[in-house]
Amino acid sequence: KHRILLDCDPGHDDAIAIFLALSSAEIELLGITATHGNVGIEHTVRNALLLTQLAETQTPVYAGAALPLIREPIQATRVHGKTGLQATGLPDLTRQPETLHAAQAIVKTVRENPGEITLVATGPLTNVALAFRLDPELPSLIRKLVWMGGSTTYGNVTPSAEFNAFADPHAAYIVFNSGIKVHQFGLNLTLQVMVREEHIQVLQAMNTEVGRISAELMGHYVQFYRDRYGLDGAALHDPCTIAYLIDPTLFSGQDYHVQVDIQEGPNFGRTVCDYWGGHETPNTWVAMEANSEEVMRLILERLATFR
Ligand code: BDR
Ligand code: CA
């Protein structure tokens, strides 16, 4: 069983990652730490609370960084809407965030359970970098770090950079150079896992609040991909990290050296993968291939278990 902390910026695909984690016996979700990212921190915290409320759990939610470390903040409201959760009929919020800051919650949870906590990050790495700066020994005490971000190839927000990397390149730099082995799920991988109209219909047919809300979120998400890229599906980036923990055989990958470009220029925020090797010692396990059909099947099967 994986005991995890999920650092995220919900966010449509983050929402599915949260639901997948909460509906899987292989995962114990100890807490959600929210970061700025797709939308501002006030929204990501609220969304995390709303999503746990919908899933009827009391998972603690911690508010984290409102701003990146150095660069000016960016958001992805074009993809995720103004609030980050484009769904109608959301419940009134009844839950409250914890008082501890997300970065401190990461330090505290890992320190209390040395070697046992898997940290999953599906947004900019600001909170994780802050935690590593608060407690430099932390990287050696974390069981596993899994991150959706970067790419071995091209980007999405810029020709070379992926959103989570670009939204805080300096934080990503700190994490990749911390000595921890990052398990990276970049765009090169997540673009293989597409949610399509037929999946949305399955979500709808679940006839539950989680199914209905998920269908609505994925509807907007697929529409964005149709308008922006002319594709008939949308990449379900963030849930890949959780699916990997549930069933690692759904993915294959390899160890590479990955560096993060923090020079402000055309490659700002690019994760540079030493694909042919031999230049530097590998520091990252990079996911390369997904069994996409099975990943989608797993996600839908698990989301169907909500009442
Ligand atoms: C990443 O950026 C966000 O918009 C998504 O939630 C995902 O984490 C993909 O580039
Ligand atoms: Ca995200």
Automatic annotation (TrEMBL):
Keyword Hydrolase: yes
InterPro entries found in the cross-reference section: I/U_nuclsd_hydro_CS, Inosine/uridine_hydrolase_dom, IUNH, Ribo_hydro-like
Single GO cellular component term: cytosol
Pfam families assigned: IU_nuc_hydro
CDD domains the UniProt entry points to: nuc_hydro_IU_UC_XIUA
Domain Inosine/uridine-preferring nucleoside hydrolase stretches: 4-296
GO process terms (BP): purine nucleoside catabolic process
Signal is among the record's keywords: no
Keywords: Glycosidase, Hydrolase
One Gene Ontology term of the molecular function aspect: uridine nucleosidase activity
Protein name according to UniProt: Inosine/uridine-preferring nucleoside hydrolase domain-containing protein
